[in-house]
Amino acid sequence: MKTLSPECLSALKSCHEKLKSLSKTAKRIGTSPTAVSQLLSGKYGADVSKMEERIRTELLSEEIDCPALERIPLAECHQWREKAGNFAATDPLRTQMFKACNDCPKGDL
What we know:
Order of helices and strands: HHHHEEHH
Number of domains: 2
Radius of gyration: 16 Å
Shape: elongated
């Protein structure tokens, strides 16, 4: 069973201490209270990579080097990747991002 990185675990603990609720902490990172409890206790049975990504996006405000937009917040990267899943030629930027996200060497973070 893989546990969270020390940085992510610390951020999750801090968030939980601040919000004083598993439910509120879970809502903040977009998961269930059960998952938060298991992550905090080191008993999360599934792969933690997706949870680490959520924590890095929502709690640590990390940035990423985007091939199309240069340095952007990780949360913005996630938004563009979601949009890139369904192509819609609504404007030139969306078309550019569809191509960039699908060709991005970072793949599915």
